[in-house]
Amino acid sequence: MIRESVFKSFDDKSALENQLAERIAQQLQAAIDARGKASLVVSGGSTPLALFELLSHKAIEWQDVYITLADERWVDTESDDSNENLVRQNLLQNRAASAKFRGLKNMFNTAEAGVDMTIEQLANFPKPFDVVVLGMGNDGHTCSWFPCSAEIEQALTTDALCLACNPTTAPHGRMTISKKGILASRQIYLHIVGEQKHSVYRQALENDDAKTMPIRAVLGQSHTPVDVYWSA
Prior knowledge:
Blueprint: E1 6-10, H1 13-35, E2 38-42, H2 49-56, E3 65-69, E4 71-73, H3 83-90, E5 100-101, H4 111-121, E6 131-134, H5 152-157, E7 162-165, E8 174-177, H6 179-183, E9 188-193, H7 195-204, H8 216-219, E10 226-231
Parallel strand pairs: 1-10, 2-3, 2-6, 3-5, 6-9, 9-10
Antiparallel strand pairs: 4-8, 7-8
């Protein structure tokens, strides 16, 4: 049994998004005030789009904020399947247009070939990460730590910041930040919406087998604070 994280429940998505955007903005600005710069790691998918839009209007010193992705599909960065494209269209706008973005995709044909360059691209990224925003799939995956992938053991144990992975239940090869990389952060938020995701979350708390439900690798640790934000 995993000890439950801080769990915040909201009646609707907009209330969740408004509060989470405000929390993230406050933490980023506090990091800038304390250390001169801040780092934010975000996830793709449709769930965070409204959150990104709200965050992009926050009046913080965005020119001192570094943003990257928790994972990326190995597709052209202008593809509809690209998380980088999604972030550029929805977060790196308005006030946040001045933030410094570092993507995970590079010119190599495969994620495996591009790993070293991705790690190099993030070498001077402010660490530990100040804020990490994760999502969760219905199979319990987060980042691109898929229970179906041959690389799941590596994702959960490697000392490297990033690794390539190839899920069998989702399209495209991927680049993902590792468990060690994600946990090297000051604050993690798990942002989930809908009754099905709530059910998956409750199931994840039942035991600590991270290979079958990789989100447990985040929920089952006490190194980094994890706040779960959920709305129906």
